[in-house]
Amino acid sequence: MTIEQRAAVWLVVASAGLLAGLATAHPALVAVGAGFLVPLLLGLAAPPPRLPEATVRVSADRVIEGGRVELEVTLAATDACPWLDVELLLPERLVVARAPTRRVLALDAGETRTLAFSIKCPRWGAFRIAPIRLSARDQLHLRRAELVVEPTTTLRVYPSVERLRRLAGPRATRPVTGSRPAAVAGEGIEFAELRFLAPGERARRINWRATAARGRPLVNDRLPERSSDLVIFLDALGAAAAGAASTLDHAVRAAASLSEAYLRRRDRVGLLRFGGDLEWIIPGSGLRQQYRIADAVLESELARTYRWRDASLIPRRILPPKSLIVALTPLLDWRVTRALLNLRRRGYQVSIVEIDPLPYLAAAEAAAGPIAWRTWLLERDADRTRLAGAGIALASWGPDEPIAAPVEALAAAR
Amino acid sequence: MSGRRFRRAAAGAALGLGAVLGALAALYREDAPIGSIPLFAAAVLILGELVSLSRGPAPDAAVERPAVTAVVMGRLLVAALLAFAGATVALLAAAVPARHGFASGLLGAAAAAALFLLVAVVARRGGEA
């Protein structure tokens, strides 16, 4: 319970009037002082404001980016509340559609009111929704009772997933059935090549048409369908942002799309988040792994740190041998470039989707001046050349392009 | 009603009332009748309340009609009536010659109590800071 500042003002006016009246023997001053003292005393003697009981209900706790959830606040008042200020304290990334987040209402004793808010979720993330601040005042607004109703629901807004048709595949596959043709011939569906019949081979493998044409028995060689390992390298060390959009947003959306596409092809997918803290998810397959990765990328926030980050910190078990590492990075931090080169030297196949930071750096360009800006661009080009020289495929991705564009470029560059 | 509109309405009413009070003060100066003092006290209190309300609800808030009615009735009307009554009683007490000493005693006690309350509030605020 808090006494409003106005009460102190009234008290000052009242005491000043009474004292001045006493000192000057002027009844008008006493009357003015009494005019403020009487409502003050009666107002403070009245019953204090009582907050209504509030319950919050959220229609869903999981939603895809761009979706909506309905939030209902039910207020049950035991006593009359002439002025109740209800404020919905939403995280920055969530917006309320139509209705204002703050409402002032009056409740009668025993009245129950339900306030509905439609919340738009334009950006991915995990949010505790929603703290609600209640502020009740008495009739003369001399006292205030406040309460913040803490949230009980975590709303997970998953990034939107783009369907990818063509994917970059690793050169080596695992000896586990999947949907990717293996590099070595064996029992499978995908045709590989024709070769001469060897002693002991089954007659059903003979390609009779080719045999008739060549005059010698030829058999079809086929590629077995195998799965492969993919590790998504998410760079959370550096990001370029303009307003609400940032390269990290694109990286997270791309990570979600890539993991969905590879898991749909029965590959194993892991995640390595290279940020303030090194976090990873060991490669796995299936729907559960997809949710695991989606939940992990939701907590990706830009981590500005000056700690040393190197590939030597990455545990070996999260990077299976011969796996494909797809890095999603704006290449703004030299530690990321160094780590990727290090991984390449360890023998991993590394591909980079470079999320173009230049559209977000207009202000930085103006601040840096033309010479510094061009020097920085040259340094970026030098980094790209070093990466390409190490055998790392690199595809640039602009903010308005679909993720399929760089992914197909990487698949073609294989 | 939006909070912005509510604030504007309160500010407009405060300006209007302030202008009326200023005009009356300029017209009557020393000749104001003693009976107008309670009205003046109530008007000053309403003026203060309107100024306070003009900085009240957040501009983006939606203020419902029952809350506006409650404010007009409670914060303005009831407070003004109480101020009027308090000022009238004080004037009447001061106007009774036979009880002049008693009235002065009451007044002194009220002034001392108000002063004590004021010091207590100031001390509490200082302690919180």
Describe the structure.
The complex is a heterodimer of chains A (414) and B (129). Chain A contains nine helices and 24 strands. Chain A has a six-stranded mixed beta sheet with strand order 21-20-17-22-23-24, sandwiched between helices. A five-stranded antiparallel beta sheet of chain A has the order 1-11-10-5-7. Chain A is elongated and about 130 Å long. Chain B is built from four helices and one strand; from the N terminus they run H-H-E-H-H. The interface between A and B is large, with 42 and 51 residues.
Q: Strand tally of chain A, please? A: 24
How many strands appear in the DSSP assignment of chain B? 1
Task: Briefly note the structural class of the backbone of chain A.
Answer: alpha+beta
Number of helices of chain B: 4
Helix content of chain B: over 70%
The biggest sheet of chain A amounts to: 6 strands, mixed
In percent, how much strand structure appears in the residues of chain B? under 5%
What low-confidence regions of chain B span 5 or more consecutive residues with pLDDT below 50?
A: none
Distance between the termini of chain B: 36 Å
Tell me the overall shape of chain A.
elongated
* Helical run tally of chain A: 9
Distance between the termini of chain A: 68 Å
The overall average pLDDT of chain A, rounded, is: 85
Helicity of chain A, as a percent range? 25-40%
Mean pLDDT of chain B: 80
